[in-house]
Amino acid sequence: MPTILAAAAREGNWLLLAALAAGLVVFAVCAVRLTVMDLREHRLPNPWTGALAAGGGFTLGLGCLVDDVGWSRFWSMLGGGAVYLALMLLLHLINRTGMGMGDVKLAGGLGLYAGWLGWDHLLAAIVLGFMAGGLVALALVVTRRATGSTHLPFGPAMLAGTAVALLL
After folding, report:
1. Which tens digits make up the pLDDT trace of 112-168?
2. Whole-model pTM above 0.90?
3. N or C terminus of the chain: which is more exposed, having fewer CB within 10 Å?
C-alpha cells in the first residue's frame, strides 16, 4: 500500500489518495476496537466486523473508480474477501470450538483489503495471521500462561497479519 500511496501522490491522483487514506483510517479504527474487544471478551461483534467490511468495500471501491487498473483491483478485492471468508468458514465447520463465526466474518473484511492489493498480499495476510496466532500461542504455552486447551482470541492475529501485509 505505501508504494501505491506514493505513486498516487506523485501522479497527483488525489482522489485515489483520499480513498485509500479513508480506507486505512476505517481499517485502523476498526482494528483497534476489534482487537480490544476480542482480547477482553473473546468476541468480534457484527457492527464492527461489518463496519470494517463495508468501510473497506466502499472506500477501496471508490479507489477502483479512479485507479488505472481499477477493474482488476475491484475483482481482486471481491475475490480476496470471498476466499479469506471461505477459508475461515471451512476451518470453523471443521472445528467449531477452535474458530468462531466472528473470525469468519472478520476474514471477509480483511480479505477485501488484502485482495485489493493482489493475490500475493492476500496470501501474505493469511499466512502472517496464522503465524502471529501460532507464535502468541506458543509463547503463552512456554510461559505457562496457557495450555493446549486454552481458548485464545484469533482476531488480533488476523488483524496484525493483514496490517503487515498492507505495509508490504
Report:
1. 999 999 999 999 999 999 999 999 999 999 999 988 788 899 999 999 999 999 999
2. yes
3. C
Q: What residues make up the domain containing 47?
A: 2-167
The structural domain count of the chain equals 1
Contacts of residue 58, defined as CB under 8 A and 6 or more positions apart, other chains included, come to none
How far is the C-alpha of 33 from the C-alpha of 20, rounded, in Å? Answer: 20
Note whether 66 and 15 are within 8 A (CB): yes
Task: Give the span between the Cα atoms of 86 and 122, in whole angstroms.
Answer: 13
Question: Distance (Å, rounded) from C-alpha 127 to C-alpha 51?
Answer: 24
